[in-house]
Amino acid sequence: MIAEFSGFLSLEDVADYERKKIAIVESMGGGEFDILVDTTQCDIQAQDVVAAFQHNITTTSCSPRRVALVRPSSLARMQAQRALSRANAALFDSRAEALDWLHKESVTA
Q1: In the CATH scheme, what is the code of domain 2-108?
Q2: Spatial CB neighbours of 14, under 8 Å, sequence gap ≥ 6
């Protein structure tokens, strides 16, 4: 699954993303999935938005097996690292690197 974000997000955007993610996974029959989250077009986010993503990551009924986050900006990268506190998540500078990691991890899993 690939999720792309751009601009400055609202709490409603975070909630909408979570609803859509769950609907897509359920439409695929549930089960394990990997996700690539591309935030290269995102601005630095408000702390309440980051907190909402953190909350969703820890409480979702639909948790991905692996998360590859693409975030090239160093300041936003630090913000993303705080939001992604999971052993099965990694940050990347490019979509190609993220996809390569997801593919390699799938082959060895």
Answers
A1: 3.30.750.24
A2: 49, 52, 53, 56
Longest dimension (CA), the chain: 37
- pLDDT tens for 36-58 read 999 888 878 898 998 898 888 88
pTM of the predicted model as reported, rounded to 2 decimal places: 0.81
The residue extents of the domains of the chain are: 2-108
Say if residues 40 and 8 touch (Cβ distance below 8 Å): no
